[in-house]
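User: Hello! My lab partner asked me to get a predicted holo structure for this protein. The small molecule is adenosine-5'-triphosphate, SMILES included with the sequence. Please write out the structure tokens.
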Amino acid sequence: MTLSLRALTKSYAGRLALADVGVELPAGGYTCLMGASGSGKTTLLRIVAGLERQDRGSVLLDGRPLDDLPAERRPVHTLFQDYALFPHLGAADNVAFAPRLLGVRGPELTARVRALLADVGLDMSFETRRPAAMSGGEQQRLALARALAGEPRWLLLDEPLAALDRPLRAGLRRLLRAVTRRRGLGCLHVTHDPEEALALADRLLVFGDGRLLASGAPAELYAAPPSLAVARLLGEVTPEPGGDGWLRPEHLRLCPPDRPPLQDMSLGTYPNRHVLSDMSQESLSVPLPSEPARASGTVGAVACLGDRWEVEVEIGGRVHLSRIGGAPACAPGQAVVVAWDPARVLRFAGQPA
Ligand SMILES: Nc1ncnc2c1ncn2[C@@H]1O[C@H](COP(=O)(O)OP(=O)(O)OP(=O)(O)O)[C@@H](O)[C@H]1O
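Assistant: Hello! Below are the structure tokens for the protein in complex with adenosine-5'-triphosphate.
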């Protein structure tokens, strides 16, 4: 069911929380909402859920206005960060709640509840367990099963993974994607985490001060953001050495200062490209062109980020960031050359680095 948001506007005490937001979201699509704190994301979700009333504009499902339907009659379900489970019910009864309201009973209800629990990776040992006796990740799995049990047309997710630690978040993110795609369920998901948004969404809406700043495919917005604010929400940017543009840290490569451009045989997937030999032990997947832009600098701090390394390079009194795939063969204080593809430079009118 296509979800249409038309010119949604909402103020609190004379202050605009949402200003004229309009977008069409196709059935089965996964849309992530990003934006600075207070930019109106939760307000939008609450309006779609029927928990808040807009001042102007309309919410439609397949062309049918939802505006006069109370929250409990809208074909949507909201998944919150704090799970919002029934604390006095065991897992199976939490999941059975919505199907019971729909008149499902007996063996059919039991089978449906078991299938839903299995779908989210909770086995039969959880059936009678109350939420208080479950971990945060298990509670969020249960909340997802309960959400699916009501067979909503759209799932609204307000930072559902924010309270979980990083490995759990990654696992649940994959579960969310698999379960919702399998069902063709439309999702509207608020998140602060660019990695989460880039991994889950096939469409990204970026908000600032209640306005829709950008809308598009996540990878395209990451590569070509329309403004510095959008670029920064999706990942770090670092000034272009000696220029007035910006670069993503993974596009700034480190090279030994004394070597001319040469054929780097370690880049097996790009055998015909002439690149600068880079100083990381593992080659990056981002190739350089045959004539990269270059600048000389001095290595500052070097940090291991787990799966990547981050190197600060000082050039002309400014610090630039380079993120590479392996441990760099350089130490603080060492002279380096940084190289980058001029085509990767991000430029924003009126926002020079
Ligand atoms: N019930 C309310 N009463 C008064 N002001 C509110 C209310 N709800 C939200 N606001 C204000 O509306 C604006 C948008 O809030 P909203 O919660 O939608 O932002 P958000 O983008 O979800 O922020 P966060 O990322 O911090 O959750 C903020 O300025 C907020 O203070």
